[in-house]
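ingest -> fold -> write
write: protein_1
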Amino acid sequence: MQTLKLLLLDKIHAHYLEALARLPGDVLRKCHHSSLLRAGYCYGPMDPVSNIILNTIWYATTCPTQSDFEVAMICTKALRRIECCFLYGLVAFLLALFNTLTEHDVVWYLLVSNIDAAPAIAMAEQHGHVLSGAYHEAYSCAALNSWHPDPKALSKLTMSLLQMELVESLWNGHALSNSEVEQLRMVLSASFEVQVSPLDQAEILSVNQKRFITDIRKKFQVDQEFFASKANAALSNYSKKNGGDFEIHVICGVNPYVSKGARSHVNFWATPKRSNIAGATPRLFFAEFNNDDKEEESLCFSVSSASIDSVRCFDCECHGIKIVHPCGEVYHGSGDDFNVMAHGKHSIASAMSCSLAPASFMSTRCAY
């Protein structure tokens, strides 16, 4: 069961990576990063990536943030948290629909269906299971089990989307333009009332809470500036070697603990500069660089999110951080560490075996 859940989390992460690529970079960095991490779940009547995007735009529309916080990097831990929460909720969703399914059955159907609820439901019915619950109740159950900020609103949204053909006509699976996002926003705002809190967040928080949030933001901005600078340098080296001229769309995964903290592994989406293709999908990259100011050539490769569970890295797996690595390339963590650990000679072999115990996995809201 534990291994299946880990595989499911890999597939869920791939869906979120695709959703980040298909949202326009400017609105993603300005506001949609927040709504995606708060309520951008895969629930809904469409495919998982489309559902993430619709839920993200819907939440940004109906529950706008009180202040702008523009980012160039998605917090790795926050992204992992919503992926874990979504897995909780999706399992609860199917269990609410079928009272004859076990949790193992649900996890298996989701794995075979690539985390798409509709095919999973169809397979369950083909195997003789009969729907015993109502969809609106199942969506409510999913929202509660995934700690959605507004479970009732999510249930209403998902049921309403089933009747909204216009939304589906606006979405055909490509990277969205700003005008298409605005069209979706207008459709959703016309159907759902915008919720504005009577009190500003600043009026609710205590002085210590405000100071804590300010310190966290400052730390994040310092880290973001460092990783963005390093990623841009790595991307520039890639362009010199392979041709093309790219700019970073968004940084979507960081592991700063490679080689005992001396190096970092990073994923980011990048788009061609001066591209004349509207809605062109960005390209996913992997980079490895040192964590100091020493002049050392970085590694940078174009990768595919489809290979997320087929290429391994000892350092990233050790720290529970999901980074897409390049196939057939040499990087820190791809060498002999796995063999050394398999023979019980690695310094963290016992720690790894404990961290992978079934009772520990998914025991908290976050995988970290």
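write: protein_2
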Amino acid sequence: FSFFFSFYFSAPIFFPVMIWIWFLIITTFPRSSVHGVAASLAPSTLDNVTVAPIFVLDGHPIPGSWCECKTSADCICHGAGLFQIPSNLSATLKTLTVSNAGIRTLTATSLQPYKNTLRDVTFSNVKSLEEIEPGVFNNLKEIRSIYIHNAPLLRHIPASVFQLYLPRLIYLRIVHTGLEKLPYFGRLETKAALHMIDLENNQIQKISSHEVVVRTDQLLLNFNLIHTVENEAFKGSLIAKLYVLYYTALYIIL
């Protein structure tokens, strides 16, 4: 009887208190969506590292795919669920590294959000990459280095991809890919000769006449499958050092 009496007279105070506590809980802590993804999807910052979610499926981030920006100028994006370069990174982005991503195509607009500031771009371990669209490097007036590494499905780069003006470009490296033919650089314009064009460890088999027209301190063609170099293959080029190591017998057609 005493318990009932105590509860009965304290109930008017007890229930309002419980309602107030419940209100604090539901308004303070973020709710989760039906997919288990936090409802708040704004980039978070931990120890000066900004982690931006990558939206790739039905508007929701796929676990294991994200971008880490140590500064507003330096970002690394990675993860098998990353199928495109996010367009919402820093407007002052200078260095972009994309690694272990599921990207199949570098579209013409992939890098355009960062065209005014981007200096160095790297695509590493992009084993699903099959295509590079013309226009992807257009208007990158600050770009200094382009590096594509370990893209075994990339077998061809259209000639028009490098028909453009990149005034500050000094390093161009496309290595460990499935390239069977040299990209054409004859219409690539820069302010000065490149320091390096590195095309090592690809699947290039033949260098045809007039196929190589470049200005560079170093042209590296080591460890391809080159078996034939046709007459005047390098006509019009200015190359300080040419490196060609090969696995098979090399025939030079004069």
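write: annotation protein_2
The longest helix spans residues 2-28.
Confidence is low (pLDDT under 50) at residues 1-9, 25-49.
pipeline exit 0
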